Amino acid sequence: MIDYNDIQRAAEWIRNADGIVIAAGAGMSVDSGLPDFRGTQGLWTSLLPAGMTERDVGSLTKGDCFVDKPVDAWQFYGRALQVCRQLKPHAGYAMLDRWARRVAHGAFVFTSNVDGHFQAAGYEEARILECHGTINFIQCGMPCGDAIWASGNMMDGVDIDALAPSALPRCPHCGHLARPNFLLFDDQCWVETRTTAQWERLRIWLRAVQRPVVIELGAGTAVLSVRMFAESVRGPLIRINPDESEVVGEGVGLRGTALDVLKALDAVLAGN
Ligand SMILES: [Zn+2]
């Protein structure tokens, strides 16, 4: 059960804010049916190439997987791209967007999710920071330069199990194997220019906001980027998490899944 007084406090901060920072971790995507892309949770196994088991997930989340097993890696991430494009963002995205429209500076999204679901839900591209990059762009695997390009519909309708080495995406500049533009573990090759530009836009937006409130959603302690950012913003923190909802300092912890707690908050915000 979510404490009603805590929900009221959180709703009050949202009403009084002039800017909403949406800090989203894997739990935000899980509610749309997506796997935690940097974890090793069960849903990953549905994306694995034939013959591989959950034990093999680790080898396909390291930076060198596109060098060591290019076909397996592209089967894995090709299927992930299909899933990201097929699944629809859950109703919580629209609720947050509605609240953001009532405050002077709107919202800025900081997400570790690579699925592009804030864009898919209609959020403005210039108000999103994807700290681990995105599956919706690809880059040279070497890389030979900073260029990235949209993955778009390249995997739509493709029979992933039959993906041949000759059909794998290649860099248009040097011909080297391409890879998704997101950060893997032990990854020396991620092109971060897009994320760097997003950081710049976030800093400029934050400077204009006088009374920010941070809504942190489904950010675990295993990958700390989202929590660390959420705690760095000077403003009350609303931490929504099913099992790690404690807050130190000004803020409130709301225990539950992202979608459940957003619905509870939305009911209070709509009521008065
Ligand atoms: Zn290249």
From TrEMBL:
It comes from the Bacteria. Keywords: Metal-binding, NAD, Transferase, Zinc. Residues 1-272 form the Deacetylase sirtuin-type domain. Transmembrane segments: none annotated. It is an enzyme of class 2 (transferase). Zn(2+) binds at residues 140, 144, 171, 174. PROSITE patterns: SIRTUIN. One of its GO terms (molecular function) is NAD+ binding. The active site is at 132 (proton acceptor). InterPro entries: DHS-like_NAD/FAD-binding_dom (IPR029035), NAD-dep_sirtuin_deacylases (IPR050134), Sirtuin (IPR003000), Sirtuin_cat_small_dom_sf (IPR026591), Ssirtuin_cat_dom (IPR026590). PANTHER family: NAD-DEPENDENT PROTEIN DEACYLASE SIRTUIN-5, MITOCHONDRIAL-RELATED. This is protein acetyllysine N-acetyltransferase. It comes from Paraburkholderia steynii.
